[in-house]
Known about the structure:
Layout: H1 7-13, H2 19-25, E1 33-35, E2 41-43, H3 46-50, E3 58-64, H4 74-87, E4 92-96, H5 101-105, E5 113-114, E6 117-120, H6 122-126, H7 132-152, E7 159-164, E8 168-170, E9 180-182, E10 193-195, E11 197-199, H8 204-211, H9 215-224, E12 226-230, E13 235-237, H10 244-250, E14 258-262, E15 267-270, H11 285-294, E16 297-301, H12 306-321, E17 327-332, H13 334-339, H14 361-379, E18 385-390, H15 397-409, E19 413-417, H16 419-422, H17 428-438, H18 454-466, E20 470-473, H19 475-486, E21 517-520, E22 522-526, E23 531-535, E24 555-557, E25 560-562
Parallel strand pairs: 3-16, 3-17, 4-15, 4-16, 8-11, 17-18, 18-19, 20-21
Antiparallel strand pairs: 1-2, 2-14, 5-6, 6-14, 7-12, 9-10, 12-13, 14-15, 22-23, 24-25
Helix pairs in contact: 4-17, 7-8, 7-10, 9-10, 14-15
Amino acid sequence: xxxxxxxxxxxxxxxxxxxxxxxxxxxxxxxxxxxxxxxxxxxxxxxxxxxxxxxxxxxxxxxxxxxxxxxxxxxxxxxxxxxxxxxxxxxxxxxxxxxxxxxxxxxxxxxxxxxxxxxxxxxxxxxxxxxxxxxxxxxxxxxxxxxxxxxxxxxxxxxxxxxxxxxxxxxxxxxxxxxxxxxxxxxxxxxxxxxxxxxxxxxxxxxxxxxxxxxxxxxxxxxxxxxxxxxxxxxxxxxxxxxxxxxxxxxxxxxxxxxxxxxxxxxxxxxxxxxxxxxxxxxxxxxxxxxxxxxxxxxxxxxxxxxxxxxxxxxxxxxxxxxxxxxxxxxxxxxxxxxxxxxxxxxxxxxxxxxxxxxxxxxxxxxxxxxxxxxxxxxxxxxxxxxxxxxxxxxxxxxxxxxxxxxxxxxxxxxxxxxxxxxxxxxxxxxxxxxxxxxxxxxxxxxxxxxxxxxxxxxxxxxxxxxxxxxxxxxxxxxxxxxxxxxxxxxxxxxxxxxxxxxxxxxxxxxxxxxxxxxxxxxxxxxxxxxxxxxxxxxxxxxxxxxxxxxxxxxxxxxxxxxxx
Length: 565
């Protein structure tokens, strides 16, 4: 295995095409984009009308097994697969999320892919890009300010201060802001009440940006956001406090997808970044819709494992967009599957256990239950499945052969992926398998109908996707179900908020646990985004920083960003 430079070194050495050249490759001209420097641009929504008579390209979602501390390489595979499809002569575009600055400077580092499968310019991708996340944060906090001001100024809407659901947001991982008191200092500074901050990507405004289908739809969704309840138990919306119009103005540019390029000069849309725990965890519908019109193949990505992002991709994103996937790719590694055996533990800062660096077929077979469950889950939606075996130098031929056979026994094709080291060339086998899968018959269907009662929707996802035996609804959750049904929100899809580290609600349970009960401690409503989100255990909407944050290595030297990843 050749020595591969760091991600940022590879990205900074790349010879990029001017973004107008990339736009031209997909049939867009100078009037279709707004330039943000030489290498990135925003694409006008008018392109959708311009391309309305063009046929839709094949639509591919990349997801993964349940995440482990080892990392499975989902974004790398997404970009590498795109490059691989281009290598075999396909006209292809990728669509991925914009990362949050919280994880970038916190625990994760850069999120533009890795090795020779990246979106560039990598620094711009990770740092601000075109300001969409900041626009979302400003719109969100404007609503918070208007809400508190309405209560302070004689409270004409009779808002109950104890039923204010709208917190504030900031795009930094700061655990000290999770729970705070505002309004201290006297009457001129407001009134004291408990509240807190979430990270910006957890905002309902970000979820709306990713799910909207156009300007008119965005305005309607913003106006439907429920901020609080009145003392007579009626929802108070952004429209009620007359802030929705101002929020819309702040998002008028953010709604346009950002166009960038891969290391191999392929088009890449980077747009929206909703949290994958309490929101849908997928890039924007608008970007996907444009991409399916300008390309024959579109590769997008869902956050976390298939039980999280991909389930929401199918049941929420596809419901709103009307797009139907032609193939699902599940990324897996031999060493991560060994971890899912439950017999190997990884301790941060310490060397990997020897079992992960040498051949252990029995551990691989035991841990395969996790991948098997994800394959079964994706097949519930009637879509062909391909497993991307993201190869590491420690994988043996026997392990890879066993993994391929086990996948095939579950009805999924499997292909090697070496895109981190070799870029598109290392993704050709995977690309061939995906192109073949896209030509197979697809009978796409949702997991549940709109009119299924809320509790039954919860039970369906819990038992069919997670493998739970049953669900346990806390009294407050039962009360919310009655309330939401009475308010006419029961037809909304569900966006389950649970840990991404297990198929269950318990992060310590690896593999594919059975015989357990899923606790639902509360249910909340994102009416503007258009979903309800049941809370399965404790969920953090504001991450904290690790002992040594990733940002401690980031600096600017000789005009270049260093240490980003």
